[in-house]
Amino acid sequence: LRPPATRFAALRREIASPSLSFLMEAHDGLSAKIVEEAGFRGIWASGLTMSAALGLRDSNEASWTQVLDVLEYMADATTLPILVDGDTGHGNFNNVRRFVRKLCERGLAGVCLEDKLFPKTNSFIGEGQPLADIEEFCGRIKAGKDSQLDDDFVLVARVEALVSGLGMEEALRRAEAYHRAGADAILIHSKQSTADEIFAFARHWANRAPLVIVPTMYYATPTALFREAGISTVIWANHLLRAAIVAMRETAARIRRDESLLRVEGQVASVKDIFRLVGNAELEQAEKRYLPAR
Ligand code: SPV
Ligand code: MG
After folding, report:
1. Does an H or E element contain 155, and which?
2. Which of 165, 277, 286, 288 has the most other CB atoms within 10 Å of its CB?
3. pTM of the model
4. Do residues 209 and 180 lie in contact, with contact meaning Cβ atoms separated by under 8 Å?
5. Is there a contact between 241 and 27 (Cβ–Cβ < 8 Å)?
6. pLDDT tens per residue, range 199-219
7. Is 58 annotated as catalytic?
8. Sign of the CA dihedral running 75, 77, 82, 85
9. Could you say which DSSP state residue 38 is in?
């Protein structure tokens, strides 16, 4: 496994490089492995999908230490750098300090903090969610940066002003403040079905710091346009969990209807595939080395 130190540098490279980077969502150890297998260079540990995979809402129902445990499984399962969806930071500046230290200790390469209030609600629910006071959120950013245990740890500040209907000026004001407070990148979020406001923001922002986007709602926008706009990083935020939901639902329904496995066997991963994914071959080697010969 790649030692954690290089993971911090790897995420920083992805975020800082002028070429467009991609982070793919994962929500547990297995999905993290699948992201790596697909050839992605980094993982988005989504708050929405980690919660949903636990059967919970994206409302900080899982405690931050429960989230940390999921993240540790993900970090152990892959060599890729992981950008953690840190929601609001689970409280005020003091909670952020402890959260960031623990992420660093477990080899998580970066965190994204959003300018909302604890407990948060998913951005695609309701209208006009209240945002954090700018100064207070800047304190969270500074506290996070002051607590990182590796120089390359990445803190992304997420601006929710467009989602909350506060407009472009407020979004830019907030992004500027968060950048000054020490954020390494700005995530500008939108829930519109086109990327118009994202592109407008990017024009005004003029690359003062790397921009990260989440095109869940404006999914039809060609990626070439993100490149042209000088976006740093695209997050495909929830698609492995959504794919799994469809596959699991279809498989459960078919087995229930058929009372037989015959028609699903060819449609599902083989048991061997599971063994391969979780590295049973390595265990066989280790047994030869460490168990007494029989
Ligand atoms: C997540 O994946 O949890 C995110 C992105 O924060 S969004 O669901 O669009 O808020
Ligand atoms: Mg989230």
Report:
1. strand 154-159
2. 277
3. 0.97
4. no
5. yes
6. 999 999 999 999 999 999 999
7. yes
8. negative
9. T
